[in-house]
Amino acid sequence: MKSAEIIFLPPKRPEGEITKNMLESSGSKPGVLDALKEESFGFKSLGDKAWALILPKTTLYSRNAGYDNMVFIARENGMIGNISELSAKQLNDVLKYAGEIMETYRDEAEKGKTPLQLEAISISFHKNPVSQDVFQKKLHAQTLKNLHLHVVGFNDAELDGDGEVGKREVPKKNWRNIYDPFLDPLARLSRNKAFCEKYYPPFSMLTPGANTGMNGFGFDAKPDAIYEKKFAEDLIGLHNAFVALYHEISDLFVNERNSDEKGMPRLRKMEEREKRIGEFLKKFEGEYENKDDEVFVAKWVRRINRLMVGSVEASKKEPVPEKENIFLRGPAYTLSLLKQTKSERLLVNLSPRIMSYGNLLDDLGLVKEVAPDEFGQEWKLKRERMEEKLRERFKHSQEPLRKAA
Predict the structure, then answer these.
(1) What is residue 207's three-state secondary structure?
(2) Mind listing the pLDDT tens digit for each residue in 50-85?
(3) ω into 319 cis (within 30 of 0)
(4) Lowest CB count within 10 Å: 95, 215, 250, 343, which one?
(5) What are the residue boundaries of the structural domains of the chain, listed by start?
């Protein structure tokens, strides 16, 4: 995957369509869920008053988003915030639904003689984020509080750039927004035997250590893994393992049980942080694949520690400068399932969001800057054709989902 090159300015969907407020109130305001079902391209019951709805995105990332929709998970009289709140069977049904959407993309792309080169299903998660109003700065890694999956298909032009969108390097002030300082040390720790034994549950279908071309924790799986229930069980196990890891890392730097007036966990004193970091690193000594990884992790984590600031200290500056290193409150990640069309494997990548808030496109290096008036007629027609195909295949369909293997 390429490194990130372009920042986007996302245009909003046309007036009168689905809004973020509608989505987040789907389980609390009477009639909203029914309205969303009517506006959806299709929906399925997951049982236990939970539903999967195929919806257009409320914000479009680029003109090349013709094959880009979401599966939104709603619950009557409540909200589902992450995959661990679903049973393995429910998550398996959601992934199968996403797989069938991708099949629709694939068929349409073949007809248009622009076959897909990369297929991606992505989940963003962030528990208990602080409001942007607190610091006048984005400090959340998930736009919607509700669980949702992005289902995206890319062709060659979308991966390589179509030559019409100006490319430039990411400005320094934006770099830490999309690149988490913890990505490199955690990626190297994931190759540590003692680390894997401590944090990875026994997986049935995920094989740790895959080079996904992205930063974070990489895994291999067979190409049709999304259709199997054991794969859903593995993803839930991975979610739970990361949440536990986040709290242990967070505890090195901040006191989650002691919040400041901004509602953020208080930064520990430098001496205490150094002591805790030393104890944490000692657990994994001598268990790295090579000595270079061990040296790098120790140096990098201590470097992060020296750059850390507390939220109250940072909040004295309005707005907070982008360079300030503040923990996101609560665990967060971007979980991506990636398959190159001709590949015989599915890549699974979990990018921790501990001090950053990137998404799938950031991880892929495909973030684009497109003004709303640059969306041309060809793009609109492509999107309209895809939406019609999704309606034809899924709208109010009561056909059973593909059976799990």
Answers:
(1) strand
(2) 999 999 876 655 545 558 888 999 999 888 999 999
(3) yes
(4) 343
(5) 20-394
